[in-house]
Design goal:
Number of helices: 5
Largest sheet: 3 strands, antiparallel
CATH architecture: Alpha-Beta Complex
Helix content: 40-55%
CATH superfamily: Ribosomal protein L22/L17
CATH topology: Ribosomal Protein L22, Chain A
Oligomer: single chain
Radius of gyration: 20 Å
Distance between the termini: 42 Å
């Protein structure tokens, strides 16, 4: 049983060699607005995704651009000898989950109050290297 688990662990470790990820927790942007930007770069090559994020007017794109650069740096740290341009990196997976909510009250007419929910999100970005050579 120990040999089987060891072989499975080695196979998982080899599969994760071409994958790197970065996480952004408690980002003070609503998940809906962040998903609009995340959907634009899902599945895109890293250079195209960086260009999309750089020239997007949305505020969430600045945070995702920084997160993508962090994921690229994590991939470089894992694969020192590999070159980023030759690795053909692409955005393998990007997930935007809801985070904690700040609940505030805003005064309303006639002595009432409206609840304001300031939403935040968690973003997980996974990049992978495709083995296709151009």
């Amino acid at each position: 049983m120990g040999n089987r688990k060891h072989n499975a662990a080695q196979a998982r470790k080899e599969a994760l060699k071409n994958v790197a990820f970065a996480k952004l927790n408690n980002c003070p942007t609503s998940p809906r607005k962040m998903r609009l930007v995340a959907d634009q770069v899902r599945g895109a090559h890293v250079n195209n995704a960086l260009a999309i994020l750089k020239f997007s007017p949305k505020e969430a794109s600045r945070r995702l651009e920084k997160l993508l650069l962090s994921a690229i740096a994590n991939w470089q740290a894992k694969n020192e000898e590999a070159d980023v341009e030759k690795a053909n990196l692409f955005v393998k997976e990007i997930r935007v989950d809801g985070g904690s909510m700040l609940k505030r009250l805003q005064p309303a007419p006639q002595g009432r109050a409206h609840r304001i929910r300031k939403r935040s999100n968690h973003v997980t970005l996974v990049i992978g290297a495709s083995n296709l050579e151009n």
